[in-house]
Predict the structure.
Amino acid sequence: MADPRDELVTTLRDAGGGTLRDVWLFDETGHESLYLREDVAQRVAELDVERYIDNERYGYVTRETWESLHYTDYEFTIRGFDEFLLYRTFLGADEARVGLMASFDTDADVDFPTVTRTLAETADGTGIGVVAE
């Protein structure tokens, strides 16, 4: 059986091709880098990654807020920056929910609803977690 982490990266790479920049898993206390494109790795080395991931952890709260305000479930968030698109979703069930964050070059043509469903199916039942760095 393939490692579900590798399958998550493969799903994102299939969707975005060479525009995929990085992939991260995170939970409320730790984070794990699954993929870093070489040019992005050089830039990330200069960042406070923990602080960056910490900001994405607010998604645990905002996801619950959005779900309580709407008649449908939250699936993903896209943020646009001048050099990349940032995608975030959550995988797994309630307490075991893990955040997944990936970025793509701005010219990416990604079907995010389909990617989100495929990622959820890949992670379903695997108990995928985070290895804290």
Strands lie at 20-26, 31-36, 76-80, 84-91, 98-105. Residues 91 and 121 are 9 Å apart (CA to CA).
